[in-house]
Each structure stands twice: as C-alpha cells, then as structure tokens.
Amino acid sequence: RKEVEQDPGPFNVPEGATVAFNCTYSNSASQSFFWYRQDCRKEPKLLMSVYSSGNEDGRFTAQLNRASQYISLLIRDSKLSDSATYLCVAARRGYQKVTFGTGTKLQVIP
Amino acid sequence: AAGVIQSPRHLIKEKRETATLKCYPIPRHDTVYWYQQGPGQDPQFLISFYEKMQSDKGSIPDRFSAQQFSDYHSELNMSSLELGDSALYFCASSSKAPGLAGVGSYEQYFGPGTRLTVT
Questions:
Q1: Greater pLDDT, A97 or B69
Q2: Model confidence over A75-90: pLDDT tens digits?
Q3: Are B106 and A87 a contacting pair at CB < 8 A?
C-alpha cells in the first residue's frame, strides 16, 4: 500500500462544475500537506498548502482531517485551464522528505 | 521571481555512460531535493540536502550520487546508465523559514526538469 493514495481518475467534468478530490495518507507522523498540479511533461507547481483549519484560495478549498488521515481539494466553477493532474503531498515534521500521491487527473470539458 | 534552474533540459546518453545533472535553487533556499519521474508515474523522491549535508535518502540507486555545494547548487551524478533510468529528473528547493502555520515550511518549488533518455 502506498503511503499517500489518490483516486487516479480521470475525472471528466463540464466547465463550471464543482469537483472534489480526496487523498489518504497512512503515516500518522505526517505533519505538513500540500496540493500540487502538474501539467503534462511539466514540473509540479505548488497549488496550496493545507492547514489544520482548512484554507481557501479563490476557487480552491483545501481541508485536512487528521483523525481520518485524509486531505481534500475542492475546485469550484471549473475552468478549462484547471485540466491537469493534481498531486497530494505529505511531509513529516523535522524531515525534508515528502511523499507524493499518484495523482488525480482532471479533465474539464467545454 | 527567480525560480529553480536545472541544466541541461534534455540529455541523451548511451547505456553504461555517465551523466551529471545540475540544479540551482531559488536564492536563499537552503534545501534541495531530487526526484525521478517515469512516464505515467508520480515523482519518486531520490535524495535531499540541507545546508550542504545529505538530509534524507529515498529510492536512489547506488549508481547515483549527489552533493550540494557551498553556493547551494546541487549535482546529481549518474553512472553506468541503464535504459530504465530514462525519466524526467526534477530538482526542487525549499526554505525552512516558518510559514503561515507557524511551523517550518517545506513548500517545495520545482525546476523545469531534465529529460534524460538512455539509448
């Protein structure tokens, strides 16, 4: 079992739709969490960090549930430009190693 | 804003040859990470350096080695290349400055990658 797991998708959604991704992590020592997006053959780009209280950045909302060990990302009003692979990342406090999930592919359809 | 720089962007080598990939982190970032991403796979952590010392080790083959220099740039040396080493190699950097959450921030910023093809 991978340390960070995601539904690979693809999620095909129409423009304007709301879509949610979940990610589970198995290492309870994980302390910091992030969402990255990666376009085909490009580098992962940091989308947002995930804080215990949850955080929002425009159309994107991230939530952390430590008890259930999962992280979520909600995208509202999907745009064509949101089409990408979304990578969930967990990091352990005091260490510099982070673990990536396998990614969830999103395709927004006109 | 300055980003992570990697060179070369593309590299073609033959089996059993050696390759050296270079990474220049964002200014004032003190930690460098190396990742390998095969086709259709997620980035696999190889190794990281903090203040020029190896800080963590992942799935890096013994044929590979890396170091971080006094100017914080890092090099990944790959020897006895195999066909399976063909992949995108990303470098990322981060700073341990406290983030909004009041804890050390491990937000990593990635370079554009080096595409290595072994023939």
A1: B69
A2: 999 999 999 999 999 8
A3: no
Chain B contacts in chain A segment 67-106 (CB below 8 A): 87, 89, 91, 93, 95-103
Q: How far apart are CA A87 and CA A38, in angstroms?
A: 7
* A95 confidence band (pLDDT: 50, 70, 90): low
CB neighbours of residue A95 within 10 Å = 16
Q: What angle do CA A63, A77, A105 make, to 5 degrees?
A: 65
Which residue in B56, B101, B112 is closest to A97 by CB distance?
A: B56
Token pair, residue B2, equals 């300055």
Q: Which residues contact residue A51 at a Cβ distance below 8 angstroms, ignoring those fewer than 6 apart?
A: A62, A64, B100, B101
Tell me the pLDDT of chain B averaged across its residues: 89
The pair phi, psi for residue A44, each rounded to 5°, is -65, 140
Picking from B44, B56, B107, the nearest residue to A95 by CB comes out as B56
Pairing verdict, β A98-100 and A45-50: unpaired
Structure confidence by residue, pLDDT tens digits, B16-66: 999 999 999 999 888 899 999 998 888 998 998 988 888 888 889 999 999
Distance CA B87, CA B19 (A): 13
